[in-house]
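Working notes for the structural subgroup meeting. M.R. asked for a predicted model of this chain before we commit to crystallization trials. I am recording the input and output together here so anyone reviewing the notebook later can reproduce the run.

Input as submitted:
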Amino acid sequence: MIKAIFFKDSKSFIKGFRMNGHAEYADAGQDIVCAAVSALTVNAVNSIEHFTEDEFTYKNKSGFFEFRFKKETSSPESQLLLHSLLLGLQAIQKDYSAEYISVTSKEV
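Returned structure, recorded in token form:
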């Protein structure tokens, strides 16, 4: 199962997120849940990098991805992109069952 945790402040601004695990919906190379999660995540991070001035760090290993902004605040554009990522992941969870992906938020 993929576990996605979004880190938010008290005003619901997303500070970062972490994803661990594998969906195991199908064999490697055939797993559409994993492919969808990967595509949404890569698109969001690439879009933040190319369309905003916000600085961030990330770690990417097999079955693990973590993203954090370097500063306490981020642009409205970055917030929109991350909320869009969150919405997309929640839709995958709804459509393919919480057996394959769990999406939660944690106040930090």
